[in-house]
Amino acid sequence: MDTATSKQPAPTVADGLEVGRFVPDAVRHPQLDHLLSARRWQCAVLIGGSLVATFVLDVVTPVEMSFALLYLVPVGLATWMVGRALGATIGGVCSALVYLWERYGAFPYSSSFFLHWAFLMHFGFYLAFAWALAALRATYLRAKSDTLRDAETGLYNRKAFYEAVALETRRAIRFSRSLSLATFELAEDASHEDVKKVATALGASRLYDVAARVERGRFVLLLPETGAEAARVAVDRVRGAAGLDELPGAHVGIATFEWPPTCVDDLLREADRVMAAARTLPATSVRHAVLRGAAATPAPSGRLSQKVV
User: Fold this and answer.
1) Per-residue pLDDT averaged across 29-40, rounded?
2) Residue 271 lies in a domain
């Protein structure tokens, strides 16, 4: 991915979660996410299979054995994998199956009144369970997108950014790929509109880039598997969209690591040095340094060779 491609619509799974975007470990739960991202045929197999299996057990076992709680399995799967509407529908199907079996098969009641009462109780219980689980599902999805995001801009915050840097640095070293890190700084008195404009421009970057706000007027853009030329093109696109050349006191620095050091602290330290040098340039200029260090062993800052472009 060493070219700066235009922003493409991100593929999504249920509830708008983007495929391919960086997801912090703090909000990643593989089992739950696997159910959320299941395909339609997988949903049908799991939901339908659990529903049929529960009904068969209910029919072949003695009437004294109740399987009302087991019907929560298909209701829960439908709610979590698809949504509240399907969960409530499956709950109604489960209630109807129990009603039909008890009416035309077992009929364990002394009168039909209790049969109808049991149907209402079952349906109400499954419906309430589906609504409660749907609320929990919505809370979980919000946590995935909001817990490690900046409340004002919607970009990732400092904690998520550091995790992304560590992850992408290990990946770059493992596969011998380049890595770029761009820093955008606004003046201390930058307006709210300027901050939002920069955040919007960063959020529209390429699919696998990680944009974050680490301080009030400081933003970073992590560009995985991106060399010097592609990084400059991507950053220029952000600068143009955000109108940074027209903002007084705005500065941009880019650090491209052809061989990232195994020490993440060294990587961040070198990026900070590039940004410090960028502050000495006019606002319309960009400080871009290409850094070369050993990828197999820790490379102290002093051992990194630097080429400014």
Assistant:
1) 81
2) yes
